[in-house]
Design goal:
The complex is a heterodimer of chains A (298) and B (287). With 298 residues, chain A is an all-alpha fold. Helix content of chain A is 77%, strand content 1%. Chain B has 287 residues and is mainly alpha-helical. Chain B has a two-stranded antiparallel sheet. In chain B, helix 1 packs across helix 10 and helix 4 crosses helix 6. Classes of the chains: A mainly alpha (298), B mainly alpha (287).
Chain lengths: 298, 287
């Protein structure tokens, strides 16, 4: 009995440890397979062509610049929506709303996080895009703007939940101190609570932006998917195409191992590196802020 | 300086509060509107035949049974891999790991897994499961891809649930002669179960609603029959919605809204179950 128990403990402990390490394994595997299939791009496509402004794979034009600018402009637009509304909602939920209101709002925001992106894309395609076309008098409603609005909505739950956590973590004594000095609640929020939660709010914004860059189905359905260079602000009102949508739309049709296939994996590599950078930056902000807080409090 | 002390600041506060409140409502109301709108538009399409029939006439008529069954298969398949692995990883992080560089690397890896775009998971699944391991475009490949994607959600919520079990429970159990694993299995896991379950359901909810990871790993445009084995491709609700709303011309709008509604109900009921489990566990908790 004693012996078999020890043996079982040993096996189970090993299994649990192995599972713990699995996350590292998976990140490494993902990166490895992206590199394996993506790096051949460099020997097959000239760097000047790859950084060109023309994406037209049928004629071997693999300029990824339009796709990158498409992703950037949509993400920028999404951030313009998600940052103020996300932080505003977080401030309302954590600082202003009465308790019962908080109990209603929090699940609703979580619900938005749970809506499948394809459902939002579907509604964007059927409702939002036609509305924008009529309302703004555009030739087509399938524009970067439609993508930005929906992506803003998709990024909001991330921003709200992370920012709200950060606001909640601000010690109550900070607020009480400010009130005792005669500050109004509003002044306390702006000059004490938000500055104290600064790093957490910054993390919220970064994670929200990261979420927006990586979103696929929604943008594929509502942005019109025209691979044109989007460098003017006016591009918001014309169709664009993102990196994610390009992969999703074209991967199903390419021959495995072809140049086009490798380039699509290369774009995946770029996306992977962007998300890695965003997430490491976001977590290091939190880490640094923690260190500083420890220094101050000790 | 003086105007800070005047009545002005109360006016500022009032205007500010109104603005922030409006912003919060502007965020939340569209969410409710989306759900209600899809309910209203989709309900007329729902019938017994729609839920249990096969699509015909180029998917322009009939039901969506293969897509519903496919999504159920994919969700179960995802759970088979991600639940044991995710909970085990959470146990490791909460019960075994100390704050070493290795543990920190694991945490960074989890954060990064959570941030990787879903379409990149699709590429990875294509590269590893479909081509390298030769599973083909199949339920197996799609489930494995989805399960790696849901892993970070399950790990982080399960770890949080495990950590919230008071340390005293463990101390007492061990002092009564239980081994570490016995303590974890009979005390810690049991107490943390509702929290873990919530995380698992929320993770699977994401998997059920995702399209991009299954695009090239397991989703079929149209199948006249149900899949027979894990090595078959399958139709799935999110992909089906994408297909019928953008790829098939002259698609009856009713069927589109009906499909959206079924997907929404599928996903939201999981969300609701998770919320109920969480709030009931919180109400019952004695520590």
């Amino acid at each position: 009995m004693e012996k078999s128990l020890n043996w079982r403990e040993f096996v189970i402990t090993r299994l649990i440890k192995a599972s713990g390490y699995s996350a590292i394994l998976f990140v490494a595997l993902i990166f490895f397979f992206l590199i394996r299939e993506g790096v051949p791009t460099f020997s097959e496509v000239d760097l000047s062509s790859l950084l060109g402004t023309r994406w037209y794979p049928i004629e071997e034009h693999f300029g990824i610049l339009p796709l990158i600018t498409g992703s950037i402009i949509i993400t920028f637009g999404a951030a313009l929506i998600a940052v103020p509304f996300g932080i505003g909602t977080a401030v309302y939920i954590s600082e202003i709303a009465p308790r019962w209101m908080r109990e209603i709002l929090k699940p609703l925001v979580e619900l938005l996080g749970g809506l499948p992106s394809v459902v939002l894309g579907f509604l964007g395609f059927l409702v939002l895009a036609p509305f924008l076309r009529v309302f703004l008098n555009l030739p087509t409603g399938l524009t970067a703007l439609a993508g930005s609005i929906l992506l803003g909505g998709i990024a909001v739950p991330t921003v709200v939940s992370v920012a709200e956590d950060a606001l909640d973590a601000v010690p109550r004594a900070y607020r009480e101190g400010a009130w005792a000095l005669g500050a109004t609640k509003w002044q306390t929020i702006w000059r004490v609570t938000l500055p104290a939660a600064k790093s957490g709010v910054l993390t919220a914004v970064m994670l929200g932006v990261g979420r927006a860059i990586g979103e696929t189905m929604t943008v594929m359905m509502v942005t019109g998917n025209a691979p044109v260079l989007a460098i003017k602000l006016g591009s918001l009102f014309s169709p664009v195409r993102t990196m994610t949508a390009t992969i999703a739309a074209e991967m199903g049709e390419v021959a495995n191992g072809s140049v086009h296939y490798h380039v699509l994996f290369f774009i995946g590599m770029v996306l992977f590196i962007i998300s890695l950078a965003v997430n490491i930056a976001a977590s290091s902000v939190v880490f640094r802020a923690k260190k500083r807080a420890e220094r101050i409090l000790s | 300086m003086k105007n800070i002390l005047t009545r002005n600041r109360h006016l500022t506060q009032r205007i500010g509060f109104i603005l922030i409140t409006l912003m919060a409502f502007a965020t939340v109301i569209p969410i409710v509107a989306v759900v209600i709108y899809i309910l209203a538009q989709g309900l007329p399409a729902i019938s017994w035949e729609f839920l249990t029939g096969f699509p015909h006439d180029g998917m322009r008529a009939g039901g969506i049974l293969p897509a519903i069954i496919g999504t159920i298969y994919l969700t179960i398949g995802t759970a088979l891999f991600s639940v044991p692995l995710g909970i085990a990883a959470a146990i490791y992080l909460s019960e075994y790991a100390s704050d070493t560089p290795l543990t920190r690397t694991i945490r960074i890896a989890i954060i990064n897994l959570a941030g990787i775009p879903s379409v990149v998971y699709g590429l990875f699944g294509l590269g590893l499961f479909v081509l390298f391991l030769n599973f083909g475009t199949s339920i197996l490949a799609a489930s494995l891809t989805l399960s790696i994607m849901t892993l970070p959600v399950i790990i982080s919520t399960a770890e949080e649930a495990l950590r919230s079990v008071p340390q005293g429970f463990r101390t007492v159990s061990i002092s009564l002669g239980a081994t570490r694993w016995q303590t974890i299995r009979r005390i810690v896991l049991k107490e943390a179960l509702p929290g873990i379950l919530t995380g698992v359901i929320l993770g699977l909810e994401r998997a059920a609603g995702e399209t991009a990871p299954i695009l090239f790993t397991g989703a079929a445009f149209f199948l006249p029959r149900l899949p027979h084995s894990p090595f078959d491709a399958t139709m799935a609700l999110p992909y089906h919605l994408f297909v019928i709303s953008t790829q098939v011309p002259e698609m009856p709008i009713q069927i589109q809204y009906g499909t959206a509604l079924v997907l929404l109900v599928f996903v939201l009921s999981m969300n609701l179950i998770a919320t109920v489990i969480r709030s009931r566990a919180r109400a019952k908790r004695q520590w």
